[in-house]
Design a protein that fits this description.
Elements: H1 10-24, H2 27-47, E1 54-55, E2 58-59, H3 60-76, H4 78-89, H5 92-98, H6 103-128, H7 131-134, H8 142-166, H9 170-186, H10 199-203, H11 206-219, H12 226-248
Antiparallel strand pairs: 1-2
């Protein structure tokens, strides 16, 4: 795709790079990434549902569907890192910099792309499981949902970018990503309520706080301290994003 030189408007520059990423996206990958969590939710919800019937008086498949929104979004964030890894090695990143796009434009467009993708996936899950919004429509909190999505993309999208900047090859990048992201996903409350044996690990996992925000927004489930959780994840997300921006120009291609 041919794109013009970077416009003077900062926001438009970010939108232009985001549009470029969306146009270049593999359509088969898009379908699989969006449909897979729906299939997983049905299989896990009605398989494990015979052992876990309810969580906080909510049917387990509905509880799981809310967590699956976050579970799928965290793995979507891995592609922010892969995009940088690939384009820095094929020369595209250097070409964009010559055209006037800054490292901030590039990273922000990657995070925005992931945010749009995560929202699309969430909408598909809600269509497949309308109980998410029909459980208690009056308890839906769009602010909590928005914060959960934004903070997740900031933290894990930037983390994936940092890993890509340090990985020496593609295999190393995917192995480190898989290790960190899968441990984060399964050591959280996204798929099931944490047991006493792993409660300490779960409480130290940033993803658990994001899952709490998402369930608070979709199902109205209370959190221990929603204000503290938002401030904590926001601080971690900003720090991780700032670190990624600082590293991208300091790391040789």
């Amino acid at each position: 795709m041919n794109i013009p030189n970077a416009p003077k408007n900062e926001i438009f520059s970010i939108f232009l790079l985001t549009y470029r990423k969306m146009i270049m996206m593999d359509r088969v990958f898009l379908v699989l990434q969006v449909v897979t969590p729906v299939i997983m939710t049905y299989l896990m919800g009605y398989s494990f549902g015979s052992y876990i019937t309810e969580v906080d008086e909510i049917a387990y498949p509905v509880y799981l569907a809310a967590g699956m929104v976050v579970f799928n979004a965290i793995f979507t964030c891995q592609w922010a890192g892969f995009g940088i890894w690939d384009e820095r090695r094929n020369g595209m990143y250097t070409q964009l910099r010559v055209m006037g796009f800054s490292e901030f434009h590039y990273l922000a467009s990657g995070l925005l792309y992931n945010f749009i993708f995560a929202l699309l996936s969430m909408l598909v899950i809600i269509v497949a499981f309308p109980q998410l919004i029909l459980y208690d429509p009056s308890s839906i909190n769009l602010i909590s949902i928005g914060f959960a999505m934004v903070l997740l993309v900031m933290f894990y999208g930037s983390l994936s970018m940092i890993i890509s900047l340090k990985a020496k090859n593609q295999v190393t990048f995917f192995l480190i990503n898989a290790l960190i992201f899968e441990i984060s996903a399964f050591a959280s409350s996204a798929l099931y309520p944490p047991s006493k044996e792993v409660a300490a690990i779960t409480s130290l996992n940033p993803l658990s706080y994001i899952v709490d925000l998402m369930r608070n927004g979709l199902l109205g489930l209370p959190t221990n301290n929603i204000g503290f959780e938002i401030v904590l994840i926001f601080a971690l997300g900003v720090a991780m994003t700032f670190l990624a921006i600082r590293m991208i120009d300091q790391t040789p291609e």
